[in-house]
Amino acid sequence: MREAAIDQLENGLPAAVLPHHAAAVLRQRLDSLVRTNSVRPAGSKTIGGVTAPFGAGKSTCVTNWAYAFYRNGIAAVADPVYPQWEPEAGLTARLVPVVYLSLISAAGRKELNAQILTFLGYPGEGTTRVTTGRVATALRRHGVQVLIVDDVHMLRLTEKSSREVLDSLKTLNAELGFVHGTVLLVGPTPESSPVFDDPQIRARLRLFDIDPFEITSVDGRREWQEFLKDCERLLAKYLPNITPGVLSSQQSTFIWFRCQGFIGDAATLLSGALVSALRRGGRSITREDLIGVPLSARADDAQAEIERRGRRKST
Asked: How far apart are CA 270 and CA 267, in angstroms?
């Protein structure tokens, strides 16, 4: 019975969202951006851009925010399973406050249109001219307020099709602007996402960064330890006798050493260490529990590099 309960916990823990202060700040800023765009005069609005290194949790943060925004958007609808509204007298349509796309490599305007139409339940076939008009109609008909385009680093601005996508994004911003909606672009650091350097995009762009935790400064170490304190409170639900400060004080540097402050690897590490402690019947999480959790290749590579630099300094 006990092992079965631990197995169930192990399967469910990956769905847990760690109490990440940067994510909370991002949610507030995105709420503010969307709220401001909703009351500004019709036309092209401010475009949001969320950037972070690979593995820092940007897509997870944006997705969690989008779920909450969607739920708020359909709160007044009688049937939340198939939310509907009347965009105009005599016309009933599905209410879709949020559209989420993951950009495909070297996509042109036609492919981007097809992705939006497919998301909204329409066929994506047709000429670019036809699908562009269909997208504009669909955005208004379904009450789209936020269009999220993830993986914008897939754009290659030297390719004609990618230039078409940039032009299409500007058109979509204008179309959504007439219904007071917002375009949100998500990608890695601006250096890896040339879309953020496009002059017309930058003219309306507001960037929000999510950086991994760092422990080289006093403020950075404090934020890291506060994050781990919050994680201790979360893990105490499953390990009630966990030693206070075992993560935030005793093991804080070693935990950072293993995951380098990346939220995704931190979540994997802490949930894995918790399961390890439970399986061995421990009352708290030990360094051995933390050592035994496999992490991403990125985390392993960075850990190895830190170890190499340490050895060079000691010789």
From this structure: 5
